[in-house]
Write a structure and sequence with these properties.
The complex is a heterodimer. Chain A is of the alpha/beta class. Chain A has 8 helices and 30 strands. In chain A, strands 1, 4, 5, 8, 10, 11, 12, 13 and 14 form a 9-stranded mixed β-sheet that branches. A 5-stranded parallel β-sheet of chain A has the order 16-19-22-25-28, with no helix packed on it. In chain A, strands 17-20-23-26-29 form a 5-stranded parallel β-sheet, with no helix packed on it. Chain A is globular. The two termini of chain A are about 35 Å apart. The relative contact order of chain A is 0.13. By secondary structure, chain B is of the alpha/beta class. Chain B folds into 2 domains: about 260 residues, Spore Coat Polysaccharide Biosynthesis Protein SpsA, Chain A; about 80 residues, Hexapeptide repeat proteins (UDP N-Acetylglucosamine Acyltransferase, domain 1, 3 Solenoid), CATH 2.160.10. Chain B is built from 9 helices and 28 strands. In chain B, the strands form 6 sheets. In chain B, strands 1, 4, 5, 6, 8, 9, 10, 11 and 12 form a 9-stranded mixed β-sheet that branches. In chain B, strands 14-17-20-23-26 form a 5-stranded parallel β-sheet, with no helix packed on it. In chain B, strands 15-18-21-24-27 form a 5-stranded parallel β-sheet, with no helix packed on it. In chain B, strand 2 and strand 3 form a beta hairpin. The radius of gyration of chain B is 21 Å and the shape is elongated. The termini of chain B are far apart. The chains are: A alpha/beta, B alpha/beta. At the A-B interface, strand 16, strand 17, strand 18 and strand 21 of A face strand 14, strand 15, strand 16 and strand 19 of B. Strand 16 of chain A pairs antiparallel with strand 16 of chain B, so a sheet runs across the interface.
């Protein structure tokens, strides 16, 4: 088998509790995004657009839709010989089974997988970030410095720095300190949760961390501090561009609206570094004689008779006559009856909304309506 | 009983001007995101047929590009799957010849090799969504070696193709080339016993330049032919007018539900992964089909807009079909127009086709 320069490990097992109903039956990376995408599309597309053709996807929480969605990886051009996507669930061994206890633990349980490919470097990704990034540039920087670890960072406003994991680096970019959500930050370089490790260094750190009593087996809390303490060569890679962690309903909502409102920074329309997806085949959308659509994104398979303003309609959505949808996101296959009023709300996948229902309000919190109905 | 499928794509449409100059009718873009052959392929696939041959014409580049190894139709298989077979080049073919005997003869290995009992044979340019399983059952029960599929049309004289007279026992008594009034219109779709097909090819191989049904027409005396009625929607595209009309039929609630939104029988096609369509402030779209990747700032009425089309500010598109990657400039006006791929209409240009019956066709890559 060809030796790999870099393979990716995509952490997709988290529940995403803060997304509430959105993740009650779907793992966070598989939550619908921007009408026709799922959150994981961004990470997978970044991989393939960066020439990384081997991706391990670590799953744990309610993986049904995620597994089906990823499939063979063909939709992202990741159905390749000598690589491709691999779904990596927790598994049982001779002495019983274990759940993934932390991000580093999940990777630890798949040492065999990585050894199988024996790559020079391993890229660790989160399956729940919205951004477009060329990992090659980061890999080049990592290799040029012969680093043990390179951490991708983004500048955040100083006053918000205490919400992030903050890296303090010297002029050369060598990380001197890592502080998780510091009260008095001395840097505004926030970790994006994207790491490139040299496999040799990571392998050693994982094995040692596994033996350590009291470790939470987390990259941020355990592995990076440990490697820093050992004086390993750890550098920042500064990413400039759009990057969002869609961990809360508000950020999930805002980031989707950015697909319309901030095309300059997060552009899914361009042919350059495309965002791929594995959507079902729907007919093109039909807009009825009285449909009125303004400043919105509408996907294939939609049938619209009502009025849509500044909203996103996912694939296969129906909007009945007389209904008004404003500042809202209707997730795929939801059916909105007649004369409904939906304002600043998110309607869950496959939910049917009866005629004359009112959901959300212009000045309230964003309402998430209904429980996702899983279907293929 | 095992059934395999055969799709004939080796015929041209010569009434579409530049639209079919460099592509086969089977790969003519249709309905926003489809190519015409998607319907034949999806019907086969949705009816549980897992071995499908396609007789391709010499200019099949666009067809091969679209079909690939048949993955979207679940035909990328080890056992069976898609067989792309060469059609013959035979001078100028008679219009309407769907089942040239010579095409079937040179590809008869396809029948011989498979252990199937029946073959469903269809043309590749008709829009309909049909479950072939009841047809297979009917054919099996009827015991005749050949069963033709027809639909009733109100004005036979307005259609091009074959018409059938059927007796009360459901036997085809004659086949003609003209219809009048309510007629039984042959849908270029039939099911045939494989053994009979092989025999037929041997009996008539001297007439290889003829269409299979022209031969049958004049040999009705010793043909036992059954007839199966299809009661759904049939979009038959013989002229530019038909092309506009059958595209617009997609806006019809009944047609949309029956043909395109049937959860049991999806019409599959090659996916292109376009972004959602973006309706900018000022867009006004009514009774129209819009595809992914479009960016709409103008007005669209009673029209079909394909993938990745830009409609500029103040532009007006009525009763038209704009194929993929069209770029319609600000304040341009298009009425009764069929524009092929990559057509660019400059700002302010106004084009009015004669009327719905005679839409103007704008060829691929043209800038106006």
């Amino acid at each position: 088998m060809k030796k790999k320069k870099c393979i990716a490990m995509l952490l997709a097992g988290g529940q995403g509790t803060r997304l509430g109903k959105l993740t009650s039956s779907i793992a966070k990376p598989a939550v619908s995004f921007g009408g026709k995408y799922r959150i994981i599309d961004f990470g997978l597309s970044n991989c393939v657009n960066s020439g990384i053709d081997t991706v391990g996807i670590l799953i744990q929480y309610k993986p049904l839709i995620l597994n089906r969605y990823v499939g063979t990886g063909e939709s992202w051009d990741l159905a390749v010989a000598d690589g491709g996507v691999h779904i990596l669930p927790p598994y049982a061994g001779e002495t019983g089974g274990e759940w993934y206890e932390g991000t580093a633990d999940a990777i630890f349980h798949n040492l065999d997988f990585i050894d199988m490919y024996d790559p020079e470097n391993v890229l660790i990704l989160s399956g729940d970030h919205i951004y477009k990034m060329d990992y090659n540039k980061m890999l080049e920087a990592h290799e040029a410095r012969n680093a043990d670890l390179t951490v991708s960072v983004i500048e955040v406003p100083m006053e918000e720095a205490s919400r992030f994991g903050i890296m303090t680096a010297d002029k050369e970019g060598r990380i001197t300190k890592f502080s998780e959500k510091p009260k008095n930050p001395d840097s505004n370089l926030a970790s994006m949760g994207i790491y490139i490790f040299s496999w040799k260094a990571l392998r050693k750190a994982l094995l040692e961390d596994h033996e350590k009593e009291g470790s939470s087996h987390d990259f941020g809390k355990d592995i990076i501090p440990k490697m820093l303490g050992e004086g390993k060569d750890i550098f920042v890679f500064r990413f400039e561009g759009y990057w969002r962690d869609v961990g809360t309903v508000q950020s999930y909502y805002d980031s989707q609206m950015d697909l319309m409102d901030d095309v300059e920074n997060i552009n899914v329309f361009t042919k350059h570094s495309r965002v791929f997806s594995n959507s079902n085949i729907y007919p093109p959308q039909y807009l009825g004689p009285n449909a009125n659509i303004n400043n919105s994104l509408i996907c294939n398979g939609c049938t619209v008779y009502g009025e849509i303003t500044h909203s996103i309609l996912g694939s296969g959505v129906t909007i009945g006559e007389g209904s008004v949808v404003e500042d809202s996101i209707i997730l795929p296959n939801a059916i909105i009856g007649r004369n409904c009023r939906i304002t600043k709300a998110i309607v869950n996948e496959g939910v049917t909304v009866d005629d004359r229902t009112e959901i959300g309000s212009a000045d309230g919190e964003i309402e998430v309506y209904g429980k996702a109905k899983l279907s293929i | 009983m095992k059934t395999i499928g055969l799709i004939s794509a080796n015929y041209q449409g010569n009434r579409f001007g530049e639209l079919t100059e460099n592509r086969t009718l089977a790969s003519l873009p249709y309905g926003g995101r489809y190519r015409l052959i998607d319907f034949a392929l999806s019907n086969m696939s949705n009816s549980g047929i897992t071995t499908v041959g396609i007789i391709a014409p010499y200019n099949s580049g666009s067809l091969i590009d679209h079909i690939g190894i048949g993955t979207p139709w679940s035909l990328g298989r080890k056992n069976g799957g898609l067989f792309l077979m060469p059609g013959t080049v035979y001078g100028v073919q008679a219009e309407g010849t769907r089942f040239l005997l010579r095409d079937l003869l040179v590809n008869q290995d396809f029948f011989m090799r498979d252990n199937a009992d029946y073959v469903i044979v269809t043309a590749s340019s008709d829009v309909y969504n049909m479950d072939f399983r009841p047809l297979i059952k009917y054919h099996e029960a009827g015991g005749k070696p050949l069963t033709m599929v027809y639909t009733k049309v109100p004005k036979g004289e307005k259609n091009i193709g074959f018409f059938m007279d059927i007796d009360e026992d459901g036997k085809v008594t004659s086949i003609k080339k003209e219809g009048k009034g309510w007629s039984n219109y042959f849908m270029d779709c039939f099911i045939i016993d494989k053994k009979f097909m092989i025999d037929f090819l041997q009996w008539f191989k001297a007439l290889e330049h003829m269409d299979m049904f022209e031969i049958i027409m004049s040999n009705m005396d010793f043909m036992e032919i059954g007839a199966f009625e299809f009661r759904g929607y049939l979009g038959k595209i013989n002229t530019a007018k038909d092309l506009l009309k059958v595209n617009q039929d997609m806006c019809d609630y009944g047609v949309r539900n029956e043909v395109f939104c049937n959860p049991e029988r999806t019409i599959y096609t090659k996916t292109q992964d376009e972004a959602p369509a973006f309706f900018m402030p000022g867009s006004d779209v009514r009774n129209s089909i819009i595809s992914a990747g479009c960016r709409i700032e103008g007005t669209v009425e009673n029209s079909i807009i394909f993938r990745s089309v830009n409609v500029g500010k103040g532009a007006v598109i009525r009763n038209s079909v704009i194929m993929m990657h069209g770029d319609i400039g600000d304040n341009a006006v298009l009425e009764n127009v069929i524009a092929d791929k990559y057509v660019k209409i400059n700002d302010g240009v106004k084009i009015y086709g004669g009327d719905e019956d005679t839409p103007i066709i704008i060829g691929k890559n043209q800038t106006i």
